[in-house]
Structure formats: structure tokens, C-alpha cells
Design goal:
Largest sheet of chain C: 6 strands, mixed
Helix content of chain A: over 70%
Largest interface: A-B, 42 and 40 residues
Structural class of chain A: mainly alpha
Strand content of chain A: under 5%
Number of strands of chain C: 10
Number of strands of chain A: 0
Helix content of chain C: 25-40%
CATH superfamily of chain A: MetI-like
Number of helices of chain A: 8
Shape of chain A: flat
Shape of chain C: globular
Order of helices and strands of chain A: HHHHHHHH
Strand order of the largest sheet of chain C: 6-7-8-3-9-10
Mean pLDDT of chain A: 91
Distance between the termini of chain A: 62 Å
Strand content of chain C: 25-35%
Radius of gyration of chain C: 18 Å
Distance between the termini of chain C: 35 Å
Oligomer: heterotrimer
Bound molecules: adenosine-5'-triphosphate, magnesium ion
Radius of gyration of chain A: 21 Å
CATH topology of chain A: MetI-like fold
CATH architecture of chain A: Orthogonal Bundle
Low-confidence stretches of chain A: none
Structural class of chain C: alpha/beta
Mean pLDDT of chain C: 92
Low-confidence stretches of chain C: none
């Protein structure tokens, strides 16, 4: 049996952490794009669509992420689309993030005084102009802190991709544990690496939030 | 694509699902109660004047909030026994969930406490109450009320997160789903049904908390 | 032909019958003050004129343009009807000048230089020539409201609707805003004001409209109405507010 030095363990974990970061980035960007489209459509006055958005958010926030991963993984192959763990993970994390980001951004938009919309209507601005020049510049300021905060949830969410066999940080940890029988050390290091990724994001989110409060 | 969706194949496993649901509810209730308790103590510790206490709480909160639940779970279930602390799946699952909710709810409750007007503390002191009395009787109840919606959401997240404890073979709902799909090969059907059950549980939980709030908070929110 | 003509307008909020057949004609260049108790429907009427609220029966015309519940038509209407709000509703992320420039640039498609000159001219007119680059948060309430007036004027509306535009101001700042309105009257602007400033309504307004329970209860030339109110409702209203 192969012997693992501490350095071997750490090196393998670091290599796997790249996939955690990459998966997080994909999910964040994908989820951001979908969330943006949802937000733009939702605040437009398609009242009939709003039910759809509500159900969408309710589903992705009311079903465990693990279940969402299973469903994407097994559901798509049922449709005859053969998905690997990588695709399934990206897809379901994208949908998951889109629901949360949409909810965050929508609430920022709704937090703006109604008078801003009315002033724009009175001046004859179109919906798109109102969004672009008046609503979004103000909503972004409020949204940025919780958005950064949510990115921490995404990074942590990618850990569940290990369960469908995607080899990222957590899965690498499980494999190394099986090889070394040193769970305390291995999972301790795994946790530490996640902490190194997430903690700066958390600090940044808090800093932005405080800054926001100070200027208001 | 000629796959026929076959939900009837799940019927023989009705009781498997049912006992899974039972376990999910059980661990959710226990870890919600204990987690909120830990969260409250931790929030109190966090605002304490004692630097060391506040620091310990901060470290615990940050550690928990910045690492994935599944890694915490593995660390507790696989890692701690290496130190001689042997835990059953149930114990490890509960500890991990409590640990998790404790950290998140601590931050939420702390925000509620900090939102208390300074006059509340001053009024308490003027009446001759001790710090502890002011905290428990004057500050805490409205603080809970203020952040109640956020707390409820967090408790629901814990319920959903409990699906992960299936990975250490605790026989809750997700474990049941995995079991059924491995027996029947009806993976999509098992997981869809399970997802719907979770959704239903989440809605039920929200309703229960709403009902509870009517009993607990009689004064209008401030 | 009147500039604004309101014909038997009925408005419901669900079950709540708020406007019960309002009739009102406003000639170009007239200054109308709408007074009345809280909840009598003054704001609602104003918001119906520029389409912020839809109504269920009757008709409103501005010039020969009908006010209809149609996105495109309302946008056209917004070029003829300006509105100033009680709460200013300035865009906090834009400077005073940018607030004024935004609509001419986006809606009228004027080029930036032209809009800048326009903003400068209008802000000077409301006495804020030195505040072009100030953000709303750094302006007093009275100054903010004057920026809001300039912002409306930038679309060169035919009629300006003002809903209690001095109510959110400290008493010492009311004068500077009313002064701008007087100036506008002299230039021949048509103004429809919902106001609690009875002295202003009497001295500057041409005509007073007293609203009561969703109807135009009494109307007439300002000095007459104040000197000699006909209905007991107006009499009691005036005795309370004076
Ligand atoms: N958005 C709304 N939804 C439902 N009811 C409304 C709404 N806006 C106003 N109302 C109702 O319509 C009636 C008239 O309101 P309106 O705001 O026009 O009164 P007002 O004369 O402007 O009073 P005030 O002097 O207080 O501003 C009131 O009974 C009010 O409750
Ligand atoms: Mg009003």
C-alpha cells in the first residue's frame, strides 16, 4: 500500500480545491446570469409570470440541494441525456444559485421607494430606461453585500457535488481518508481549506454591508 | 426516449419513506431546539464585555459558517472517534446540525439584540435589574420577535440540510430515498417523491412556526 | 377648449369608491388649488390626470389627448403633464443637474450638451445655479423640492401637477418653493396644486376646488370662495384649517 506523507495529503487536497473553486465560479456566474434574467422579467409587469417565479424560488429553496443534485443527475439521464457529474453539478448549482440570487436582488429592488418608479413614469421613461438609469444603480449598492455573502453558500454547496462523484475538495478528502485512515487530519485540513476560501468572502461581505450602512 | 415513469413501483416502500420522514422530523425538532439554545447563549457570549468569551464565540461562529456542513459532519463522525470519542450516526448527525444552527442563529439573534434601543437597557438598570435579568426579561423576547422570520428560514435550512446526514447512514428521508432507488432502480421517481415530501415539510414547518409566533408574541412587533 | 378636462370620473380601490363622478375643466394658464379633508380623494384625482392611477368610469383629456390605461399613450402623455411629489422622489445617485437632464436625454433624445445647458438654465431659474453638482442628500428639503420642479420643467409640460409639495418641508423652507410656483404662474404655466397653504391658494390661485367625499363639492374664484363659502362642509373645513 502506498504511503501518504502529510505533504502528499495537502498537495492532493490543494489540487482538488481547484475544482471546488472552478465549480463555484461556474455556478456563481451561471446562477447570476439566470438570476438576472429572472429579476428583469419579474419586475416587469407580467403579473401572470410572477406565480411562476414564486414557485421557482419556493422549489429551489424548499428542496434540499442534495435532492436537486440527485434529480439533475438521474433525471437528465432519464430524458436520454447522459450527464457526467461535472455537468450535473454545474447545472443544479446554477439553478440553485439563480433562485437565491434572484430573491436577493428582487428584494433589493423592492426595497427602493415606490416614488422612484412613479417619478420615472411621470417623466416618461420606459421600463428599460427606468431600470437601467434609476433602479439598478441604486439596487446594486444594496445588493452587493448579500450577493458576496451568498457566494460563500455556493462554495459550501459545491461540497455536495462530492456525493454524486465529482472529485472536488470534499471528495478528495473522503478518498484520502479511505487511503490513510487519518480522518481527523484529513477532514481537518479539508475544513481548513474551505475556511481559507470562504472566510475572506465573509469578511468582504461584512465590510461592504457596514460600509453601506454607514453611507445611508 | 421510451422510458415509462413508474411511480407505482414505489408503493411497496411506503413504510420505508414513512420511517424516513419520521427520522427527519425527529432530528429536525431536536436540533432546532438545541441549536436555538446554543445560538442564544452564543449570541449572549458574543455581546459580552468579557473579551475572551466573545472571541471564543466569534471563532466558533466563523469556523462553522465558513466550512461546508458535510465536512463538519465527516469531521465529527469520522474524525472525533480517532481521538477516542466514539459517536453513533444519530449522535454525530445531531451534534453537527446543532453546531450548525447554533452558529447561524447566534448571528441572527445577535442582530436582534443589537437592534434593541439603548433606552431598554437604561430603563432596566434604572429599575434595579441585573444585567442578566435585563437581558433575559427585557432584551431577549423582542429580539426574538424582531428576527423571527430569519430564524424560521434558518431552521428550515437546517431541516433541508439534514438530508446530508444520509451520508453517514442515518436512516432519515434521503437515506430512505437512496435505499428505495437502489432496490427498485426507480431513481428519478424516488427522488422526485422525496423532493416533494421535503417541499411539503418545509411549507409545513413554516406554517407551524407562524402558528407558534401567534402564541409566543402577543405584543405587536416594534 | 380647456387644457385639462375631467368628465364624470369614477375611481374605485377595490370596494372603496374614492372618486364619485368628478367634473373639472382647467383652462391653459390657470392656477387651480385643490383643497379638502384628508382622504377626500385629492391625490387620487391628481394621479388619475397623469395616469399613475387608472380610473373605471368617465374620461380625462389633456389637450386632445385622452388619458388611457396604455403604456405607450401614457408615456406620450408624460410630455404634456409634469408632476412634483410631496416626497421629492429625486434620484439619490444623480446630481441635481443629472436629475434634470435624465428625462430630456432619454425620452426626448436631446444631446448631452443641450441637456446640460437646459439643466443649468432651469436650476438657475429655481435659484439653484450654484448647486448643479450637488447630490440630493446634500441639499435641504426646499432645495430638493426646487430641483424636483426643475426636473419636471425640463420636459416642458403644458400643465404641472403638485401634490402637497410643501408638506414635507420645514416651515422656513416653504416660502422658497412657493416663490418658484408664483414665478411659474407669471410665465403662464398651468398649475394644479393640492395644497394646505390656504394663504397661497387665496393669493396666487385663480380658482379653488374644494373636494369632499370624492366629489368636487364647491368651486369658484379664490377670493370669493374664501371670503364667502357656500356649503356648510367648506365653511367647517375652513374654520378648522384657518
Ligand atoms: N393605493 C391605494 N389603495 C387603496 N386605497 C387607497 C390607495 N390610495 C388611496 N386610497 C384611499 O383613497 C381615498 C382617497 O385617498 P387620497 O390619497 O386621494 O386622499 P387625499 O385627499 O389626498 O388625502 P390626504 O390629504 O391625506 O393626502 C382614501 O380613503 C384612501 O384610503
Ligand atoms: Mg394626498
Amino acid at each position: 500500500m502506498m504511503q501518504f506523507t502529510d505533504w502528499d495529503i495537502l498537495r492532493n487536497l490543494l489540487l482538488a480545491a481547484r475544482w471546488t473553486i472552478l465549480l463555484s465560479l461556474f455556478a456563481f456566474i451561471g446562477g447570476g446570469l439566470v438570476g438576472l434574467i429572472l429579476t428583469f422579467l419579474r419586475s416587469a409587469k407580467y403579473a401572470s409570470l410572477n406565480v411562476f417565479f414564486k414557485v421557482y424560488v419556493e422549489i429551489f429553496q424548499g428542496v434540499p440541494l442534495l435532492m436537486q443534485l440527485f434529480l439533475t443527475f438521474f433525471g437528465l439521464s432519464l430524458l436520454g441525456i447522459d450527464v457526467d457529474a461535472w455537468t450535473a453539478a454545474i447545472l443544479s448549482l446554477t439553478l440553485f444559485s439563480s433562485a437565491y440570487l434572484h430573491e436577493i436582488w428582487r428584494s433589493c429592488i423592492e426595497a427602493l421607494p415606490k416614488g422612484q418608479w412613479e417619478a420615472c413614469r411621470t417623466l416618461g421613461l420606459t421600463y428599460a430606461q427606468t431600470m437601467r438609469h434609476v433602479i439598478i444603480p441604486q439596487a446594486i449598492k444594496m445588493a452587493i453585500a448579500p450577493t458576496v455573502g451568498f457566494s460563500v453558500q455556493i462554495v459550501k454547496g459545491t461540497a455536495l457535488a462530492s456525493i454524486i462523484g465529482f472529485v472536488e475538495l470534499t471528495k478528495a478528502g473522503t478518498m484520502l481518508n479511505n487511503a490513510t485512515f487519518e480522518p481527523f487530519k484529513v477532514f481537518g485540513l479539508v475544513a481548513l481549506l474551505y475556511f481559507i476560501i470562504c472566510f475572506p468572502l465573509s469578511v468582504l461581505a461584512r465590510y461592504l454591508e457596514n460600509k453601506n450602512h454607514a453611507t445611508r | 426516449m421510451d422510458y415509462q415513469v413508474n411511480f407505482s413501483g414505489l408503493v411497496p416502500y411506503f413504510s420505508t419513506f414513512l420511517s424516513g420522514i419520521g427520522m427527519t422530523i425527529q432530528i429536525t425538532v431536536i436540533s432546532t431546539i438545541l441549536g436555538l439554545l446554543v445560538g442564544t447563549y452564543c449570541a449572549a457570549g458574543r455581546i459580552s464585555q468579557q473579551r475572551w468569551l466573545s472571541s471564543i464565540c466569534a471563532v466558533y461562529i466563523e469556523m462553522t459558517r465558513n466550512t461546508p456542513f458535510i465536512v463538519q459532519l465527516f469531521f465529527i463522525f469520522f474524525g472525533l472517534p480517532a481521538l477516542g470519542l466514539k459517536l453513533s450516526a444519530w449522535e454525530a448527525g445531531i451534534i453537527a446540525l446543532v453546531f450548525n444552527l447554533g452558529a447561524y442563529s447566534a448571528e441572527i439573534i445577535r442582530a436582534g439584540i443589537l437592534a434593541a434601543p439603548k433606552g431598554q437597557w437604561e430603563a432596566g438598570r434604572t429599575l434595579g435589574l441585573t444585567y442578566r435579568q435585563i437581558f433575559i426579561h427585557i432584551i431577549l423576547p423582542p429580539a426574538y420577535q424582531r428576527v423571527y422570520p430569519a430564524l424560521v428560514s434558518q431552521c428550515i435550512i437546517v431541516m433541508l440540510g439534514s438530508s446530508v446526514v444520509s451520508q453517514i447512514s442515518l436512516e432519515e428521508l434521503t437515506f430512505a430515498a437512496n435505499f428505495v432507488q437502489s432496490r427498485t432502480f426507480l431513481s428519478f421517481e424516488s427522488y422526485i417523491v422525496t423532493a416533494v415530501i421535503y417541499l411539503f415539510l418545509a411549507i409545513l414547518m413554516r406554517q407551524a412556526f407562524t402558528l407558534l409566533s401567534k402564541v409566543m408574541f402577543k405584543a405587536p412587533a416594534l | 377648449m380647456p387644457l385639462v378636462s375631467i368628465d364624470k370620473v369614477h375611481k374605485y380601490y377595490g370596494e372603496n369608491h374614492v372618486l364619485k363622478g368628478v367634473d373639472l375643466k382647467v383652462e391653459a394658464g390657470e392656477v387651480i388649488s385643490i383643497i379638502g379633508r384628508s382622504g377626500s380623494g385629492k391625490s387620487t384625482l391628481l394621479r388619475c390626470i397623469n395616469g399613475l392611477e387608472s380610473f373605471q368610469e368617465g374620461a380625462i383629456y389633456v389637450g386632445n389627448q385622452a388619458v388611457e390605461d396604455d403604456e405607450l399613450k401614457l408615456r406620450l402623455l408624460s410630455r404634456s403633464v409634469g408632476m412634483v411629489f410631496q416626497s421629492f422622489n429625486l434620484f439619490p445617485h444623480k446630481t441635481a443637474a443629472e436629475n434634470v437632464m435624465l428625462a430630456p436625454q432619454l425620452v426626448l433624445k436631446k444631446d448631452a450638451e443641450e441637456c446640460k445647458a437646459l439643466a443649468k438654465k432651469l436650476l438657475e431659474k429655481v435659484g439653484l445655479g450654484d448647486k448643479l453638482d450637488a447630490y440630493p442628500a446634500n441639499l435641504s428639503g426646499g432645495q430638493q423640492q426646487r430641483v424636483a420642479i426643475a426636473r419636471s420643467l425640463a420636459m416642458s409640460p403644458k400643465v404641472l401637477l403638485c401634490d402637497e409639495i410643501t408638506s414635507a418641508l420645514d416651515p422656513e423652507l416653504v416660502g422658497e418653493v412657493l416663490h418658484v410656483l408664483e414665478q411659474l404662474k407669471e410665465e403662464g404655466m398651468t398649475l394644479i396644486l393640492v395644497t394646505h397653504e390656504m394663504n397661497f391658494a387665496r393669493d396666487v390661485g385663480d380658482r379653488v376646488v374644494f373636494m369632499h367625499q370624492g366629489k368636487v363639492w364647491e368651486t369658484g374664484a379664490s377670493d370669493e370662495v374664501f371670503a364667502n363659502p357656500q356649503t356648510p362642509e367648506l365653511q367647517s373645513f375652513l374654520s378648522v384649517v384657518r
